[in-house]
Amino acid sequence: LAKTTQPISMDSYEGQEVNITCSHNNIATNDYITWYQQFPSQGPRFIIQGYKTKVTNEVASLFIPADRKSSTLSLPRVSLSDTAVYYCLVAVKAAGNKLTFGGGTRVLVKP
Amino acid sequence: NAGVTQTPKFQVLKTGQSMTLQCAQDMNHNSMYWYRQDPGMGLRLIYYSASEGTTDKGEVPNGYNVSRLNKREFSLRLESAAPSQTSVYFCASSEIKVDRETQYFGPGTRLLVL
Fold first, then answer.
1. Which residue of B33, B80, B82, B108 pairs with B92 in a disulfide if CB–CB is 3.0 to 4.6 A?
2. What is the pLDDT of residue A29?
3. What is the DSSP letter of A40?
4. Percent of chain B's residues with pLDDT above 90
């Protein structure tokens, strides 16, 4: 399983864009990059997943360079409710996927 | 469609007691998982079940047993609880689509072992 490294915490202000970079130097050819969001006292929630280049949905964008050794989750115009822990995971898309959650990045959005 | 449900929400045990954490999903997913999350930490996989009738160990299986009762239900049993098992336990199930795989998590069970 590929190990991921991401910042422990980040502060931002309402309305700003938040970019969280995750490093995954030993990512394998068939691995996908997935991001989850977790609020206090809740289970993680899927945000976005990608293999290469750029993926965008209604919540976030995921940028993956050609070498795939890192990825950046971009949260546009954050609000106070985006304060949460964000986890970057790398795994093969397969049944019984043994996901490994690291420590995550604690994002604090200030008014 | 309730998603992933877990019972109980909260439990206090004494050292040496046993209990079973229940998990059910109504999304017709094949794969199910049990994680634990200690304060300020990420989730660690205890056991998972890729499909009905199969189970496999994750990162931290010691002290736990699991049963995949049917496609919907996946239970986690602590035979002799220890204070080190004080944690929040999350159950999850997953679906695989052409463009992504998603794990859906339950609300968690908070376990305190005295």
1. B33
2. 82
3. T
4. 77
Tens of pLDDT, residues A21-68: 999 988 888 888 999 999 988 999 999 999 989 999 999 999 999 999
Residue A92 to residue A1: CA distance in whole angstroms: 9
Contact A20, A106 (CB under 8 A): no
Q: What pLDDT score does A97 carry?
A: 65
Q: In what order do the strands lie in the sheet with A61-64?
A: A18-23, A70-75, A61-64, A53-56
Q: Test B41 with A103 for CB contact under 8 angstroms.
A: yes
Residue from A101, A105, A106 whose CB has the most chain B CBs within 10 Å, to mutate: A101
User: For residue range A68-109, what is the model confidence (pLDDT) as tens digits?
Assistant: 999 999 999 999 999 999 999 987 666 556 677 778 999 999
**Contact of B60 with B67, CB cutoff 8 Å:** no
Q: What is the pLDDT of residues B48-64, one digit of tens each?
A: 998 898 999 988 999 99
Asked if B103 and A103 come within 8 Å (Cβ–Cβ), the reply is no
Give the residue on A whose Cα is nearest the Cα of B93.
A96
Q: How far is A27 from chain B (nearest CA, A)?
A: 17
* Minimum-distance CB partner of B45 among A41, A98, A102: A98
What distance in Å separates the CA atoms of residue A54 and residue A52, rounded to the nearest whole number? 6
State the smallest CA–CA distance between residue A72 and chain B in angstroms.
18
